[in-house]
From TrEMBL:
Protein name per the record: 3-phosphoshikimate 1-carboxyvinyltransferase
Organism ancestry: Eukaryota, Fungi, Fungi incertae sedis, Chytridiomycota, Chytridiomycota incertae sedis
Chain ranges of the 3-dehydroquinate synthase C-terminal domain: 377-540
Domain 3-dehydroquinate synthase N-terminal: 264-374
Ranges of compositional bias, category Low complexity: 23-40, 61-72, 199-215
Ranges in a coiled coil: none
Record-annotated SDH C-terminal domain positions: 1907-1936
Residues covered by the Quinate/shikimate 5-dehydrogenase/glutamyl-tRNA reductase domain: 1747-1796
Pathway(s) the chain acts in: Metabolic intermediate biosynthesis; chorismate biosynthesis; chorismate from D-erythrose 4-phosphate and phosphoenolpyruvate: step 5/7; Metabolic intermediate biosynthesis; chorismate biosynthesis; chorismate from D-erythrose 4-phosphate and phosphoenolpyruvate: step 6/7
UniProt keyword terms in alphabetical order: Amino-acid biosynthesis, Aromatic amino acid biosynthesis, ATP-binding, Cytoplasm, Kinase, Lyase, Metal-binding, Multifunctional enzyme, NADP, Nucleotide-binding, Oxidoreductase, Transferase, Zinc
Region listing for Disordered, in residue ranges: 1-94, 176-258, 688-765
Domain of life: Eukaryota
Amino acid sequence: MTENRPDPTSPIRTPQPHPPILAMPSSSPPSTAHSALSSPVGRTLPGPTLMFQPSSIRTTSASDVQRSDSSSHVPPRVQFGVNPTPSSSSVARHPTFQTDHKFLRVSVLGHDTYICGYNLTRYLARDIVKSFNVATIAIVTDENVARIHLPKLLVELHHAIDDVFGVQQLHVASAEDATPQPGSAQPVISKISTKKDAPTSPTSPTDTYTPPLTSGPSSGTLLRPSHDSSTASLNPSPSTAVAGSNTPVSNLPSRPRPRVVYHVVPPGETVKTREYKAKIEDWMFGAGCGRDTVVVAVGGGVIGDMAGFVAATFMRGVPIIQIPTTLLAMVDSSIGGKTAVDVPAGKNLVGAFHQPRRIYADMEYLQTLPLREVLNGMAEVVKTCAFWSEEDFALCEEGVDRVIEFAKGNRDPVSRDLITRLVVSSARVKSYVVTNDEKEGGLRNVLNFGHSIGHAIEAILAPDLLHGECVSIGMVLECEVARALGICDQATVERLARCCAAYGLPTRLSDPLAVRLTGGRSLRVSAEQILEVMRVDKKNRAGRKRLVMIKSIGTLHEQDATAVDDRVIRKVLAPAVELISPAHQSGPAVLMTVPGSKSLSNRALLLASLATGACTVKGLLHSDDTQVMLEALKRMKAASVEHAEDGKALVVTGNGGTVKAPDVEVYLGNAGTASRFLTAVAVLAGSKARTSSDDDDKESVGSSGAEDGDVDPQIRAKQKPRSEQTKVSEDSVLPPTSAMIDSAHPTLRHSGDKPHPTTLTGNARMKQRPIGDLVAALNANGCHIAFGEREGSLPLVIQPTGLPGGKISLSANISSQYVSAILMAAPYAENPVELTLVGEEVVSQAYIDMTLSIMEDFGVKVERLPDGRTYRIPRATYVNPPDYTVEADASSATYPLAFAAVTGTTVTVTNMGSRSLQGDSKFATEVLAKFGCVVEQTERTTTVTGPAFGQLKGIGTIDMEPMTDAFLTLCAVAAVAVGDTTIVGISNQRVKECDRISAMCEQLRRFGVQVAEMPTGLTVHGAGPEGLHPPEGAVKCYDDHRVAMSMSVLAMGLKQGLRSIVGEKRCVEKTWPDWWDVVEREMGVSLEGVDEVVAPEDEDVTGAKKEVVVGTKYGPSALDVVPYAGSTSVVRAETSKLSDATIVIIGMRGAGKSTLGSISAKNLARTFVDMDALLEKKIGISIHELIDREGWEGFRKAELQALKDALELHPTGAILACGGGIVETEGGRDLLKAWGGKREGTIRKGHVLHLTRDIDDVIEYLTRDKTRPAYPEEMRDVWNRRKGWFSDCSTIEFVVVKGKRGVVNVDPEDETYWDDVAKELVDRLRHQLAQVDDGNAKFFPGGVPLPPRTSYFLALTFGDVRTAVPVLEEVTRGADAIELRVDLLKSHDQGYVREQVAILRRNSDLPIIFTVRTKGQGGNYPDEDVNAMFELLENALKWGCEFVDMEVIGEDQPSRKDLMETLLKHKGNSKIIASFHDFEGNVSWDNPTQPAIGNLAAGQAIRDGKASGPVSTFPSKYKILEKYGDIIKLIGMAKQRSDNHALERFVLSVSGPSSKPLIALNMGAIGQESRALNTFITPVTHPALPVPAAPGQLSIAQIHQFRHLLGLLPERKFFLFGTPIAHSQSPTIHNTGFKELGLPYTYTLSETGSWEELQSVIDKHARSGRFGGASVTIPLKEDVVRHGVAEELSDAAKQIGAVNTLVAVYGAEYGEKGYRIVGDNTDWLGIRRSVWKRLGTFAGGRGTVGVVIGGGGTSRAACFALKQMGCEELRIWNRTSAKAERLAAEFGGVAIHELKNSLKSLFSPEGSVRETTFIVVGTIPAQAQNGIDLLGMFAEPNGQKPLLNDTSLASVSRTLPVAGITLTSLTPNVSGVVVDMAYRPRRTPLLAHAVSPDALAAGWSFKLIEGIEILCEQGFEQFARWTGRKPPSSPIEAAVYREYRE
Ligand SMILES: NC(=O)c1ccc[n+]([C@@H]2O[C@H](COP(=O)([O-])OP(=O)(O)OC[C@H]3O[C@@H](n4cnc5c(N)ncnc54)[C@H](O)[C@@H]3O)[C@@H](O)[C@H]2O)c1
């Protein structure tokens, strides 16, 4: 299995004698050893009990010591067994602590250095004190670890020292005694034993001990001379100590009593520097540490590495002990002695090898480690298993849930066992490797699997990505490199990637997780960047990079890294691939096995396993499904499987139908096919053998069965009887054995010998998929299959009954897989089977036929009776053919065959022939043959030979309806052919991964091919190879695998040597993951990896990938709800896919370029460059001086050059702020225009942002600032000269509007509006720069919510928006967008309009529709000012308006067409509403071919040819508008009701799932009906507006009333469930909202404490379609989850574990019942929204500490909210600590035990560059708050102001000398916020304390959030979910506060 592995028996380095300083435990005298550590009174240590040890790990007996050393070479698979009670000899040889505490040992470099167990602190303290003859024990740790774990460690060390040295020593010790004594005597071991009688109970029990960590310096001393006050709380009072001590002085060790000192550093990689190392060393010197010091590193890898390095060099080296506290440190960094610090040149570049003397891996630490850190460590575990042990890798795969549960604090024994096993296994592998190659000769390199690329990624993306996360990506990529070299196969890559992904680790740079964590930076990492960093990898030799390669999971390619060319690595890393067209000569046929069809792959695997003999299976598809099937079959011992032919084939040796129930449950993920097939197979576990040959097989199975499972049979044999096992002491601190697991979880693991059931289980989705009919059929036949959880779904517990056989009836109208399952298992039934399919119809007969056919291939012929529904299956044994090739996926097979066609070569697909039943299998015979290819087919192969290169001929029209997926391949062939090919019948291809017809047209054109697009297909005018050229830039694949593969075929058909680039190369992975390897290796085409080159036409006019959105005719439903802006995390968190091109900021000096630029840069994760500063740095003198020396001209020249250089250096990922005069020179303007693509003939490379601010404000500010050079001219003249240039050069414009709401009369001193400005700009950039499609149909790019299906826009009809500001909130209630009618504004001047947009933006969150309506179209804008109008529209795009209305008229005039097309080109992320208004009522809604019944006048006009102007019909207009708009708006004029009916008919005729959103309505009074019926952004008015924008406009409330009367908006009832609720404000909230929007809904109280009652109310009203939803409060919030009242849960509800909102969703898809109840939790959103309001949406995150007070249900939502906001730390206090502990474990926080001082203690220690902001959330009722020391929390004087936080906006504003801007709410010069969820009284004790005089005097300054506000906010979120509408918050709040009585 692992032939490359070192010989396990080969000798390794002989154990070195222990260094003298160590008193090794093994030298302890036997007889007294036990008593030596008898614990002090009251702290009795557990007596000798069972020991659980890995067989290959150090054990306790003397002989075992030997075994341990040699056995460490066997493959280090950890197995647990039970050792007999230690024999006397073991006691004799080992010190007592081994029998008191149980642990696992691993030998490193011949010493038993590594000790792993649970709760080791007491043990390790004694071990250190006893074993190390030192004067000082110097602990180095970090703040996080110190807070949680240091106290206990200090206390235990204290006790250990007391135990060993006697308590009175303290009393008598003089300062001299306590001073380290160099060269003091060695410990006299025999004397230690005299501690037998050592007394003393500890005077400070662990749980009440508070270390002096928080009171000042971050270092301390334990057991210093008694005059040191900081140790007072630690040391027992002298009198106690003396009184308690009976120790005879003569029995004490003669060496001096050691002291303990500690030093705490801030957490994180940033401290791993030379500077911190020096700080620690200085501290050690200061603390009097000498050579007799042992350094103890307590922490993760950072602490271990740095403290290790300190120890390595301190006084030329002192010993180091590692106490790893992270998983990563336990399995990796603590072992091996590598120590280092980071330096500017790179990570870990300065360090030393310094082996630790001890490593204590206390698993207990993992339970406080944040989940992400645990998963981070799992990357290293997975890594080790991946290169070393397939078996352990399988454990990782299965153990995902358990590991995560463990990390969350779940202490169940199975999880503990599993994770311990993984840790020790990994540690053993690492120690094995280290032992055999201490100083990195070669073998040690293998530990670097995944690290060559991983480290490079880490160098670029840290600290956003953690080490393990980078290693995870690195492993998968390195494995792909191995695949590209033919070393491993695709299955290996996939298995590895799947396992990493299961642990929540990213596996690609484009992984959404990586993108989110890095704010989009991961997408910008190029292959070249990675290669560049890899250049300094220490494994490189002679300039060649070397990577560790695995052959398969668990097997190394070689025991060292392997040299790899950069070219190969680049190919894997680069996002795009360059193909070099090959020579086109026919040679011998290329034989290709194409990835198999998925259905056939699964069946082939199953049958080969059930058959006798060996079969080499080729052509398997590597998908999740097949992988799961394979693993399950192996587990069931159905077959043994080996890889062959370099991984291209599998040799399956079947066991003739004998299967064995595995000892553990079989996890099938979401693999549906596997679950069905295996259910039928699992019953066979009990089948009796039938033939002698079967019996032989069975025997072999039996013997292999002994190897099965996780328990070593030898160990099993040694196991004690159960009765003894149960004797395990309660105090046991070790993980249980497998045997214990057996007894505790009989269903998880079985004893192996007696028959037991098979348990099949899957993921949550799988547990919902049906399998009931199959189970029913099998049970009816005598099988025993039980449902483990839910009736009808997995998990299944399948008894090994065998299949009785005979007649079986099966209902087959759900899945043909049920039929196939029984068919395939049936030959092994005890009697021949007659299977009859019952029920109405049989689904997918084709698949049943496929099963029958493949069964025949494996030797079993099934008879199908003439009724067509009955199958007779004989008793038989499948027989394996020697080889079986799975038939290809026929669509995939088209590519290599087309390759033959276009290159004039011969290709044989070896696994698809005439016998195939797949539609696309006819591609060769029915399509390629027509082109003149020679096609030869056998039953199972297809060979195509293309005509000589250049001789392909177009084939005229072809209907591809029978094989639509193959049309893309056909396009490639048709393009290389000469002549036309017209492809029809493929309209379904418009709604695949992308609109494939448009996509192909677009991309073919880029190769120089002429194409004509039609609704149902296209015509390719092939011009032969002569007419083809490679496209400029990369081929765009629309993330569609078929586009990518067909386009690569076309690229290969170009003339020899031409190079084409195909982008998004990874999209082929969907069906053919190693396609590019195949192209290179098998088709002989040279490939290079290239970093993506942007295609010039990226601004895609046709929008080939259409958003499937909205626009359909449904009423509102819960699914329709787009929560209002900012209300869900999705809005902000998932917006990171930004176009990364650099932004250049221009604008007047003093506009805020630097301030706002740097804030934006921080928030968009970009680099900020201040060009002035850069220039000064570059030239070495100030700008003043430069101007003095060289004059303005010289300065301008230098400035321009600096910008050129900066753009070259930072083409992406940066924000550059230029000086104001950059536009003064022609050269400057040219450069900017070229950057923004605004200069003739340039392609847009990036963005130019013009930041503009009222010139008077600028002047006022500039005259104040004396630090800048004066202008030679008047400021205003400068502005007038430049403003045109700014506008010409910019692509984005942002106006800084003065004043809080943009209204002029504000307090001139009040500049707090800058907060809003900053937020607005960041949001704007997020939206405008987001890449055009993030695939989320509910959001615009950038996360701006798209209006829901039912939506409204309010048309603003003011001449000046300022006058609308006071009523804006009121008039927009319930609307989803605001239309700014520019034509109605007082002035159409660009500057005026720009300001109007800015004011609107400042005063409303709603998206803006920018409309300039011309007179001819019913507006007020002069028809003739076309150019000025388009200039306005262009500017609207620059200003970031979400929608721009473009009137599509005069489209036949070239100049107008040009204007329209240019606008579309520039639209970026805005949406264009293509509009057309027929104000005259001349245009008909009916088709031109139909008589115009609708509009008589228009119809008549058309018929008479008298219509004025070019009269059209709306249907034909629609077609034109469709080309231009993202949204189409058609407005007619109703003269009679039939006009509305015609409109209705028209709308129905054009609506479909992929049609563009449509606004269609008729104006006029009669047309009002059509307004009410239009659903998508219906224009509305409001009574408070001066005039409606159009005749007939209605308000939202009117439309709702109208729809209700028509029955389109049914009445709904909403409830509040819970008790007591009599005083609830919820009815006020919701009923006010309903009324305001005219919704026919009511909200009432339904007081109950019983969930059954709640359920019955819901059932009653939901049945009649009246139930809309409900609020749920105490005590039912958790009940509705527990009892399944909520049938589906939102993610938040799931994580919080409670529901406060129920939503009814109605729809046919919910079956007979017709509805489904969805549970959500909005409490947390209420908290978040209110906090955001106070601290800005940038709040949360680094430097923020969340504090939750209380431990009840609401506190769960609070914890969740704080975590979601990104609080770095979470602290929880509750009266009952256990509850707080539980919450802390679950949400990744820490429980605090005492409120007093708690906030103060969380302040960042002095010297740290961080600032702390607190978000305190109280969740206990006000009455219960009395008596809690809330004031103590706030009142303790902290004496220090919050420190600067360099990661927050605060530092930006405080450190940048700009524009006189002070950001207030964004700068938390407040201490934070205090939220109280209790709302009666309004000012609760908690809130009162937070702002009490005492708190203020202590320097605290909190903002308060009252419970009533949260109540409203969470209610708003409910309202949005129920109604699909934004709640009208002002009137609701007004009503609530009115009703609310103190
Ligand atoms: N020497 C080696 O052979 C080697 C090998 C691998 C990695 N490394 C180094 O290790 C470092 C990464 O180590 P890491 O991942 O352990 O990071 P880390 O040391 O920074 O720890 C991660 C975080 O978890 C916190 N933490 C640690 N233990 C905790 C506990 N029990 N409970 C709560 N919080 C806890 C820490 O304070 C820190 O914030 C890197 O510098 C890397 O170079 C070294």
